[in-house]
């Protein structure tokens, strides 16, 4: 039964809504998020506003919080493409397909761009 999945999810802020002028500002912090405690899909919700130039997301995983072995990880929706102003975007990645730590990168060409991003994930069930 999936009736309570939304209530059971945790919400993780990746990018605080802001007017970003650099790729560093448009991305999550330089630290990775530990996703080993989650199961099922990790749902990435990206909320762009006005975009000058282009802004392209990428989800990366690593083997530890320091980013060892950083590599892009494929989303279930296919290739990462440039965001469209004022058009929300959703990507999903299976938690079990990661190496334990993830981050969201947003490559900004020119700027500024209004951006905010969150991740929703379901904690593993334990007895």
Could you explain how this protein is built, in words?
There is one protein chain. The protein is mainly beta and 127 residues long. It has one domain (9-123): Sandwich (Jelly Rolls), CATH 2.60.120.1110. 6% of the residues lie in helices and 46% in strands. The strands form 2 sheets. The chain has a 4-stranded antiparallel beta sheet with strand order 1-8-3-6. Strands 2-7-4-5 form a 4-stranded antiparallel beta sheet. 26% of the residues are buried.
Task: Kindly list the characteristics that best describe this protein.
4-stranded antiparallel sheet, mainly beta, Jelly Rolls, globular, 2 helices
Our estimate of the beta-strand percent is over 45%
Q: How far apart are the termini?
A: 18 Å
Q: What average pLDDT do the residues reach? A: 89
Helix content: under 10%
Q: How many strands in all?
A: 8
- CATH architectural category: Sandwich
Number of domains: 1
Q: Radius of gyration in whole Å, from Cα?
A: 14 Å
Name of the CATH class = Mainly Beta
> What pattern of helices and strands is seen along the backbone?
HEHEEEEEEE
The residue ranges in which pLDDT falls below 50 over 5 or more consecutive positions are none
Strand line-up in the sheet with most strands:
1-8-3-6
The oligomerization state is: single chain
Question: Main beta sheet, described?
Answer: 4 strands, antiparallel
The shape, in one word, is: globular
Which fold name fills CATH's third level, the topology? Answer: Jelly Rolls
* Helix/strand/pairing category: mainly beta
Number of helices: 2
